[in-house]
């Protein structure tokens, strides 16, 4: 199937029917000539939706809400290609006009007119002035919801907010973590060179490689053999901060799809016991599949709500990778920025605190607990942990700088990784020790 037509179909499902980007795009993986092109076009259009709609509203006499879903998303995809991918004008316009005819022949003239209008009037469209209205200007220029931009400006300032938004709009890098139970980094590097897989070494994690133009991940050398798994650089630091040792008993709450679970198992050399808990039966299946491919046998899975999980025996260490707003990983989850609301953050902090409080009672005295999120919102991170510590004086921060040699922070017992500052996904990690 044509990549552009597939992209329009994906966009309708994602932006009009509220389906998730990954789920929709993956369903077209075997239907298009280039999955990389489909991802680039679809994810890019979803990310830049607000800016693209701003263009359309300035070019059309009809309001956006009166345009049909196919027309709306045909225009979005076409303008994204013209503005951001700099594709040849004629080829883009011709292709999308033909696609519009497949949905409704009567709309082709309108689509053609708007796209030609864009070419003629693009430079006449005035964007909001950043000095006069920074929230609106950043929101429209960088395609982020105004409520989020407003929050980030209050927390991080205008310049940092712009950098965060710029990072979120980039094509995300794909990083992999070496499975040290089966191989070594040097062996995977040799394997990739042998098979002409382009990569570079991570500057953040000694176990990660960054892939360039990987195509279908599952077809790459070493995947089926379980030599490596896909994991973000920030995410790969969490198990290092937990610092699991051989033969320990570990609890991993909110564990699916298992990237951190399997990393903990590798650091423990597949010894001891890891109880991996998740509320979703389908997502627990992914943990089992990953463990099987990676040759991991020390993991037991439990389907249960992390805030109510109970076990008679206490754990040496606990990881809580809490459900969160995902504001640190917007570059990888293009639709997430449009699905989140201000109210979500309040609801999430209540859930996060419940999970943290429940986990604290399952930890041995002298044991450590790591709380992590892929959020950059203080309420979900440092403020929440400080709130927990006020009510639990038998816990205290533990220095994590030794586990994060590539980063300068961590002495206080926590780190907020920012996209703008560190150049990787936004993440929060705090390490708490249960005092005797």
Question: What does the model show?
Answer:
The structure is a single chain. The chain has helices at residues 3-16, 21-26, 35-47, 49-59, 69-85, 89-103, 108-121, 134-142, 146-156, 158-169, 185-194, 236-242, 259-267, 281-294, 336-339, 342-360, 382-391, 419-422; strands at residues 174-178, 199-201, 208-211, 228-230, 249-253, 273-278, 299-303, 315-321, 363-373, 395-397, 414-417, 427-434. Helix 13 links the parallel strand 5 and strand 6 (273-278). The chain folds into four domains: 3-124, NusB-like (N-utilizing Substance Protein B Homolog, Chain A), CATH 1.10.940; 134-169, no CATH class; 174-230, Sun protein, domain 3 (Alpha-Beta Plaits, 2-Layer Sandwich), CATH 3.30.70.1170; 236-434, Vaccinia Virus protein VP39 (Rossmann fold, 3-Layer(aba) Sandwich), CATH 3.40.50.150. Helices cover 46% and strands 15% of the residues. The protein has 18 helices and twelve strands. The model has no long low-confidence stretch (mean pLDDT 96). By secondary structure, the chain is α/β, with parallel strands linked by helices. Strands 5, 6, 7, 8, 9, 10, 11 and 12 form an eight-stranded mixed sheet that branches. The longest helix has 19 residues, at 342-360.
């Amino acid at each position: 199937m044509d990549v552009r037509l597939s992209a329009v179909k994906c966009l309708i499902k994602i932006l009009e029917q509220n389906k998730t980007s990954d789920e929709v795009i993956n369903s077209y993986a075997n239907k298009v000539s280039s999955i990389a092109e489909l991802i680039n076009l679809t994810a890019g259009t979803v990310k830049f939706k607000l800016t693209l709609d701003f263009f359309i509203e300035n070019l059309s006499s009809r309001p956006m809400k009166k345009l049909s879903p196919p027309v709306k998303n045909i225009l979005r995809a076409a303008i994204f290609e013209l503005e951001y991918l700099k594709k040849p004008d004629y080829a883009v316009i011709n292709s999308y006009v033909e696609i519009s005819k497949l949905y409704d022949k009567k709309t082709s003239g309108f689509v053609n007119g708007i796209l030609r209008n864009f070419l003629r009037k693009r430079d006449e469209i005035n964007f909001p002035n950043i000095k006069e209205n920074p929230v609106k200007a950043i929101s429209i220029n960088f395609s982020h919801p105004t409520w989020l931009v407003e929050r980030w400006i209050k927390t991080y300032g205008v310049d940092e907010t712009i950098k965060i938004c710029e990072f979120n709009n980039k094509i995300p890098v794909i990083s992999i973590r070496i499975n040290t139970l089966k191989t070594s980094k040097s062996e995977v590097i040799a394997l990739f060179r042998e098979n002409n897989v382009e990569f570079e070494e991570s500057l953040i994690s000694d176990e990660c490689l960054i892939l360039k133009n990987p195509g279908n991940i599952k077809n790459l050398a070493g995947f089926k053999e379980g030599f490596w798994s896909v994991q973000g650089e920030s995410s790969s630091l969490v198990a290092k901060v937990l610092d699991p040792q051989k033969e320990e008993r570990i609890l991993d709450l909110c564990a699916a799809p298992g990237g951190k679970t399997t990393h903990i198992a590798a650091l423990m050399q597949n010894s001891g016991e890891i109880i991996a808990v998740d509320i979703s039966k389908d997502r627990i299946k992914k943990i089992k599949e990953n463990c099987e491919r990676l040759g991991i046998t020390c993991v037991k899975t439990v389907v249960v709500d992390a805030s109510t999980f109970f076990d008679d025996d206490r754990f040496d260490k606990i990881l809580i990778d809490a459900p969160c707003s995902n504001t640190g990983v917007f570059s990888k989850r293009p639709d997430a920025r449009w699905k989140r609301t201000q109210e979500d953050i309040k609801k999430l902090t209540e859930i996060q605190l419940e999970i943290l409080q429940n986990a604290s009672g399952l930890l041995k005295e002298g044991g450590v607990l790591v709380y992590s999120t892929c959020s950059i919102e203080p309420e979900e991170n440092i403020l929440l942990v400080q709130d927990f510590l006020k009510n639990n004086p038998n816990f205290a921060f533990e220095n994590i700088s030794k586990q994060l040699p590539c980063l300068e922070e961590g002495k206080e017992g926590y780190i907020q990784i920012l996209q703008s500052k560190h150049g990787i996904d936004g993440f929060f990690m705090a390490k708490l020790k249960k005092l005797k």
